Amino acid sequence: MKVLFVTPEVFPLAKGGGLADVCGSLPKALTKLGVEVDIILPFYRCVRNVQTEFNSIAEDLPVSLGWRQLRADIYQTELTPHIKVFLVARDEFYDRSNIYGTNKGGYFDNGERFAFFAQSVLAFIDKTGYKCDVLHCHDWQTALVPVYLKTKYFYHPGLSALKTVLTIHNLGYQGVFPAEVFGLINLPSHLFSIEGLEFWGQVNFLKGGIIFADFLTTVSPTYAKEIQTQEYGFGLDGVLRLYAHRLKGILNGVDYSEWNPETDPYIAARYSKADLSGKIVCKEDLIRLCGLPLDLVKRPLLGMVSRLVEQKGIEILLPVIEKIAQKNAAVVILGTGEKRYEDALSQMAARYPSQICVKIGFDNKIAHKIIAGTDMFLMPSRYESCGLTQLYSLRYGTIPIVRNTGGLADTITDAQLEGGKGTGFKFNAYSPDAFWEAINRAINCYEMERTIWYELMLNAMQCDFSWDKTAKEYVAIYERILKR
Ligand code: ADP
Ligand code: GLC
């Protein structure tokens, strides 16, 4: 069985968030299960920061975008261990400083950029004789692939047998564009209807993918249920309910060769369940890096590594940060995203320089240092499809404080102080008060019940969220759709 991952991100070549981690690690797990996996993504500028060698596979593949006849070039490189990565090159679309846009918003032509990508993937398969059985597509950026296959290419001899899986990593991003964009994506006009890609007068790429993919997955069982409700459905809950019989929630796994305190090259000292002494060294190192007072080593240090967008609960974080500072604890935040949040957080840090440190930027090394060097990790998400950073934190003995939603609900068990059970602190209501109550419980436990805190750390570090458990569920889906 051969699967081509069609994705806008893959770690370490191009990363905006957890989607990259999943597309970097799930192929490795599938390979272990005997599935052959290749990956295809756009040839962004950032790819060259990581990889320098590329082979040219095809030149000048014809791709139409509205009335324009464009050309795509395909290059190939490799990720360890022996995973082939194909890159769709067209510099006017992908040779830019960012993947999707700036902190002021997405690039104006994102609809065309990803319609071009989807069509180029199919042109690549058609024109080069590349063979695979399943196209596993990820998020709205690739959602037109199933749409083209089931409409434009329905009778195409080289493409019609291909099956598709579409994984929804985040329903909050759907690829919604003005109606004019429909004229640029070369689909039959009847698809601009309520049964097709039309969405309140606009065109919605993800909706198309949901309708036409052979199977849909999302990244945790609870999120699979939530997205079928009005509260979490972002207007697509009705469509998702309609196709619920071919929708499954499969929990994301962790690549423990990247996220493991016993081997992590980015942190100041290695540590394990058996010898936690290195964690204090990591904490001191982080305190120094942030210019915070060294006596914090004995006090609670909270961390957050996140895209700074509404989804991540920045709204309920802002009123709570000040309280944390007043409680003699400290917070370190690393993130990028919307300017309003970047500014608000930076102002907080300026007001409390010895308790709040905010680093605006995207930096994998600092992300590792925060996850290792803090005592607690904050995820007050309004919604969270799966969430990976809470899983990384568990392995580093950093106790997550999370809102009880989506993948956070599925992966964290609330601390029961009697008996030292649990792996984190959970809260339900999306409100600063509920969040504060959970933080307060955590800080009190850390300060007054050190033995119990230690037990929680051990419980957390023992959790196994590797792909070994869940990659099999994808294989079962590939097998099922190939039998049809
Ligand atoms: P999401 O995909 O919604 O952003 P996840 O928790 O699934 O959330 O994954 C986020 C990933 O992105 C993690 O690997 C995290 O370490 C990383 N990340 C997020 N923000 C930053 C940042 N500012 N710098 C470095 N890594 C970051
Ligand atoms: C999304 C979600 C996150 C999930 C990630 C990988 O960006 O926001 O919860 O972990 O995709 O699936």
Give the helix tally. Answer: 17
Summarize the biggest pleated sheet: 9 strands, mixed
Ligand names: adenosine-5'-diphosphate, alpha-D-glucopyranose
Looking at CATH, the homologous superfamily of the largest domain is Glycogen Phosphorylase B
- Beta content comes to 15-25%
Q: Can you put this structure into words, describing what you see?
A:
Helices cover 37% and strands 21% of the residues. The chain contains 17 helices and 20 strands. The strands form 4 sheets. A 9-stranded mixed β-sheet has the order 3-4-5-2-1-8-9-13-14. Strands 17-16-15-18-19-20 form a 6-stranded parallel β-sheet, sandwiched between helices. β19, α14 and β20 form a beta-alpha-beta unit. α1 packs across α17 and α9 crosses α12. The two termini are 15 Å apart. The structure holds adenosine-5'-diphosphate and alpha-D-glucopyranose (GLC). The site of alpha-D-glucopyranose (GLC) has 14 residues, from α1.
Structural features:
Rossmann fold; 21% strand; binds alpha-D-glucopyranose; alpha/beta; 17 helices; binds adenosine-5'-diphosphate; six-stranded parallel sheet; 2 domains; globular; 37% helix; 484 residues
